[in-house]
Amino acid sequence: MDKDEVKRTLRKLLPAGKVVFDESLDRYTSMGVGGRTDIMIFPENTEEVIKTVAYLREREIPFLPVGNWTNLIVMDSGYRGAVISLKGLRNIEMSEKSRGAVSLRAEAGASLSELVALSLREALTGMEFCTGIPGSVGGAVRMNAGAHGREIKDVLETIRLITRGGEPLEMKRESLTFAYRSLDLPEDSIITGASFLLKKGEKTAVEEQVAGILQARREKHPLEYRNAGSIFKNPPGIPAGRIIEELGLKGVRIGDAQISEKHANFIVNLGHAKAVDIVALIDLVIKKVKGERGIDLEPEVRIIGTGE
């Protein structure tokens, strides 16, 4: 890869965005771990994403689109290729529909906390379950994020994609196939935005529900440490955290990575953890749960890059 040529071309393609090379990713990930990537790209709009992806595919440069970095563990060896940060795509629009319905149209880089804050201001009900979930719209839709018995699919109206061929595409909720913590999408497509269908509600009721969820999260989750959210998907019928706690794994640590003493489905960075330590803890839990309970725990986090 001719870095000078790639740099010149990408800067021409991204007049509003920016491009950096050999960037360390530990400063971006919520877990605070990760090696370097060859190219880091920050487009500011959908058009720049389309042009960037077309160029990277033409040059056969691998790429990874990311949002708020909250559900990723990047290995210490880093990522060979280009990371495309969608955080510059942050626009949110609100439009009223019939019978008290309201549509929130948000770009992929907007955070769920921004949508919850807007819902509070406008007394909209439907997004309260997203309170405290630290992800972006794109990531939340792709993994069908959820809590308190609700999931993104329950309020989703449409999603906007860039297809493998570089074409923008909008898909309605009824044409999408969701499962627990997953969404079946066309291969190599990139989510650039979504719209959510909410309803006008009582401001006090919305405020009380949001406040209650925030308080519960502060009490149950180890928010005082860097973390990547829930590490494992819940198997049918029982929370993953309960299984891990019952097997006596709370507090187990490798290096500065620790299975949280507050919530066993969290791994926290006590200060100087490495990705290899976190992945070793994940493997330890998977083997222990399989060996003693016969349950195959599936990671909810994405592990990016290669091992050492």
* Fraction of residues in β-strands: 25-35%
Q: Tell me how many strands there are.
A: 20
- Output the helix-strand order: HEEHEEEEEHEHEEEEEEEHEHEEEHE
CATH class of the largest domain, named Alpha Beta
What name does CATH use for the topology of the largest domain? Uridine Diphospho-n-acetylenolpyruvylglucosamine Reductase, domain 3
Low-confidence stretches: none
Number of helices: 7
Globular, elongated, flat, extended or rod-shaped: what is the shape? Answer: globular
What structural class is derived from the secondary structure elements?
Answer: alpha+beta
Amino- and carboxy-terminal Cα gap: 23 Å
CATH architecture assignment of the largest domain: 2-Layer Sandwich
How does this structure look, described?
- This protein has 308 residues and is α+β, with helices and mostly antiparallel strands.
- It folds into 3 domains: 3-85, Uridine Diphospho-n-acetylenolpyruvylglucosamine Reductase, domain 2; 92-220, Uridine Diphospho-n-acetylenolpyruvylglucosamine Reductase, domain 3, CATH 3.30.465; 226-304, UDP-N-acetylenolpyruvoylglucosamine reductase, C-terminal domain (Uridine Diphospho-n-acetylenolpyruvylglucosamine Reductase, domain 1).
- 28% of the residues lie in helices and 29% in strands.
- The chain contains 7 helices and 20 strands.
- Strands 6, 7, 8, 11, 12 and 15 form a 6-stranded antiparallel sheet that branches. Strands 1-2-5-3 form a 4-stranded mixed sheet, covered by helices on one side. It has a 4-stranded antiparallel sheet with strand order 16-19-18-17.
- It is globular.
- The two termini are 23 Å apart.
